[in-house]
Amino acid sequence: MESLIPQKPGRLLSLDVMRGLIMIFLAGESCEVYESLRHLHTGGFFTTVMDQFDHHPWHGLRLWDLIQPAFMTMAGTGMYISYHNKLKKGITWGQNWKHILFRSLELFILGTAVQCFYAGHLVWELWNVLTQLSVTTLIAYLIINRSYQVQIIVSILLLILTEILYRFTHVRGFNQPFTEYRNFGAYMDTVMGVRINPDGWVTINFIPTAAHTIWGCLAGKLLVSEKTPIKR
Length: 232
What we know:
By secondary structure, the chain is mostly helical. The chain has one domain (55-223). Helix content is 62%, strand content 0%. It has helices spanning 13-30, 33-38, 44-51, 67-88, 93-119, 129-142, 148-168, 184-192, 206-223. Helix 4 crosses helix 9. The two termini are 18 Å apart. The relative contact order is 0.12.
């Protein structure tokens, strides 16, 4: 079936489908589709399903909490496939590094600018997807040539580092790891002059979510490998 669908050279259908689904989910949120459906008040199973299209308030896990990690993973996969294609053209890691730096700068500027657009005035907020991706892209690219084992270990260490910072870095007023606005992440936002997010998002989320971008690179590396389709 995949061969019947016209594709540009170098495109990966499964990645394009994943990208499209995420965009559809996000478009539905922007158009308040889920909120409108929730107001039907049908109760029962329907309400349970619609609850999955909203972030759980601080504790717990819902489908919507997986959209941002999926976006970061998808970005990592796309980055590796692009890097792999450039290697085949003779472009080195170092030469591509300049492109990665420029792309990350673009993401950072767009991420901060869009927050100003939403607020209607100049704000300094670094916890949205684009600004987060501008940092996770750099982290993932620095180890993109390393083995599967090294990249997995680095990603796990990033998760452990996050846990240590939250559990054991006790700053007065910000020493409650699992309480909104009173944890280490919120403290770092005050240090950097970033507005405290009402939903509990923090700038240093880029540390654990860098693991998602690294895992995306690993997925891309596997998909372009010479392994048989079944093994991939």
